[in-house]
Amino acid sequence: MGEPVNIMLRIRERAKKANKKVVLPESFEERTLKAAEMATREGIARIVLIGEESAIKERARELNVSLDGIDIINPDVYPEKELLATTLVELRRSKGIDTLDKAYKVLEDPLYFATMLLKLDKVDGWVAGAVHSSPDAERPIFQIIKTAPGIDVASGAFLVVVPDCPYGENGIFVYADCGVNPSPNANELASIAISSAQLFRILVEKEPKVAMLSFSTKGSAKHESIDKVIEATNIARSKAPDLIIDGELQGDAALVPSVGNSKAPGSPVAGKANVLIFPDLNAGNICYKLTERLAKAKAIGPILQGTAKAANDLSRGCSAEDIVDSIAIVCVRATAL
Questions:
Q1: What is the topology classification, in CATH, of domain 9-145+311-335?
Q2: Which CATH number fits domain 155-299: 3.50.50.60, 1.10.1270.20, 3.40.50.10750, 2.50.20.10?
Q3: Is there a shared CATH topology between the 9-145+311-335 domain and the 155-299 domain?
Q4: CB–CB of 193/278 below 8 Å?
Q5: Could you tell me the residue ranges of all domains in the chain?
Q6: How many other C-beta atoms are found inside a 10 Å radius of the C-beta of residue 98?
Q7: What is the pLDDT along the chain (337 residues), one digit of tens a residue?
Q8: Which of 20, 74, 141, 160 is the most exposed place for a label (fewest CB within 10 A)?
């Protein structure tokens, strides 16, 4: 499967040129440390680890990992820790973090400490989730970094590369939402569409063509779930007038030119879609996994999108190479934020 390798090679090369700093708060985890070494050796990013320096170095020695060129921040002696705590109080006072002592307690969690570094632009990107569940990993990002302007919700996307496929962008697609929002409303679905188009443009460097998927094409069926997709399409158009988007479209109408011409004549997307937006998490999660298994596709992700800064949640089943890919994606995304 040459194409998945090629697109990630391109993304890694772009990351090298970006020269971004990325924090990996799960700094004692084996795959994370190996990814830190790989990303540093290849020049993909400037890596920051969080923890007591001698303990991290001892763990690295156990794993035969080199930490040359990698920064280590010990929260206990970090000179700007008070700034992090003060800012955290400002951000979370209404949620009960209303004293410095409470803020310092929260900052004992490396995920929160790393998130505050990202918030205050001490780093450019954040990658975690190798040992934390998605809700636990994403919580500090959602609480502190929040969503980008004009975006209602963060969402989870996959860059999907299907070998020997004539559809999409030579077999390359973005699928969303595949990991965060179980049942998005119309406004949220519109935000997912806009974020996914932005992600496709950033990573693939091609024009996104967004299909809002349904079991109906242009009124072929009637149901409240179809109405949601139609409403979301209209909202996305109003928020992003230059976006090439259409819906509601069935999967075949979105992908196959002859079917698109028949079912949705004149559509700017039908038969040409490269960004597929699913009506709910059931559909998105099922479809990306089926595409992986049945089409022998490569699903790169999950990619957390729609956040105000570049952060990414990993799958707990990830490899060190997957973490390096995530670091590279975060670096490229950071150049566009």
A1: Rossmann fold (3.40.50)
A2: 3.40.50.10750
A3: yes
A4: no
A5: 9-145+311-335, 155-299
A6: 12
A7: 445 458 999 999 999 999 999 999 999 999 999 999 999 999 999 999 999 999 999 999 999 999 999 999 999 999 999 999 999 999 999 999 999 999 999 999 999 999 999 999 999 999 999 999 999 999 999 999 999 999 999 999 999 999 999 999 999 999 999 999 999 999 999 999 999 999 999 999 999 999 999 999 999 999 999 999 999 999 999 999 999 999 999 999 999 999 999 999 999 999 999 999 999 999 999 999 999 999 999 999 899 999 999 999 999 999 999 999 999 999 999 999 8
A8: 74
Identity of the residue numbered 291: T
